[in-house]
Request: fold
Amino acid sequence: MIRALAGTVDEVIGVIAAQGIDADIRRCDELVLAVTPAQLARAQAAVAESEAWGGDAAPARLIGAEEARARVDVPGILGALVLPGMARIQPAKLVQGLARAVEAVGVRIAEGTTVTAITPGRVTTDRGTLRAGTVLRCTEGYTAGLPGHRRGWLPLNSAQLITAPLPAEMWQEIGWQGHELLGDLANSYCYAQRTREGRIALGGRGTPYRYGSRTDTAGTVDAGTLDLLMARLHRHFPALRGHPIDHVWCGVLGVPRDWCATVVFDAAQRIGFAGGYVGVGVATSNLAGRTLADLALGLDTPLTRLPWVNHKVRRWEPEPLRWLGVRGMYAALKAADRAEARSTAPGQSHLARLAARMMGRG
Ligand SMILES: Cc1cc2nc3c(=O)[nH]c(=O)nc-3n(C[C@H](O)[C@H](O)[C@H](O)COP(=O)(O)OP(=O)(O)OC[C@H]3O[C@@H](n4cnc5c(N)ncnc54)[C@H](O)[C@@H]3O)c2cc1C
Reply:
């Protein structure tokens, strides 16, 4: 599974090249920064886990403070996890390029049409009913809005900001010449990329969840979430205080109860679905799409034998437990970060362990 996922980066790059899609793609490492002893301990545990799975499939290595600072100068850096084999991409350009490529070979894409129900061979929309031999549902974080799926994948908010382009002097101060994907090992982590135009795009969670699995479709970010993103941007890049932010937006991720993505196909009803990528679906959705295609065509391939195929996930708890659980988990994660920032001990905070258990990952 790990090898299939790692290979998907090459697959996406190959398709982009073959189709002539300009999606700002660039091969790079991911650097996951540790700025507290507890974060450094998590980095060491991640390396040990990678080695236990066979380091060749997902090689991860730890670098010390000096080497990390030479790659990107973040205050108080203690070390970083280096994950090779990644790629930076502009996902909106990828999706638009793929849409053009499939339309060019005759596929019809119907936008601005809301699906309200799916039954075998039949898809009901707000603009009429479609009939199809095979129906594949790929609605990810929005799936909870379909009848019968309210307690399926939980729609978790994720928000991003993007700065105005940084002048060359600022890049010199920060470093980041390898254009690595950046993350941190905070419990309420953030992630960032250096874009083609020399901006920083930084994302994180903010307000995590709306009662009743409701989703926002406007992409508007609340003031509290923006404050959190700005605080993290300035924590890691103090030189950016006062530097303009050009745009802020949010969307939802699909989170299964066990945090494991799935690809499922019912050959009798000819309905399939894929998703539950928990925020790492840009490459994963490619692997899932190829797997769903093989399943729908009735093929037996290495992809259809991957362990996520027909994996069963239990449903989330009914409200108000779901809301209380997610809000409680995020409050615990933030409190754990505060406790870890004060502590010199390498151990993970009790609150972080509690939050991991609440997420079903402990
Ligand atoms: C702010 C943010 C940052 C992210 N950062 C990263 C990242 O750095 N790396 C990464 O790998 N992933 C990231 N993700 C997650 C990634 O975007 C998703 O995992 C990925 O887009 C999933 O692809 P998908 O095609 O399955 O679903 P989506 O891209 O969510 O597409 C689902 C589509 O279904 C449509 N749809 C849903 N319900 C209906 C309905 N009822 N009727 C009609 N249409 C419907 C939606 O309009 C949408 O077009 C991020 C997500 C967000 C929101």
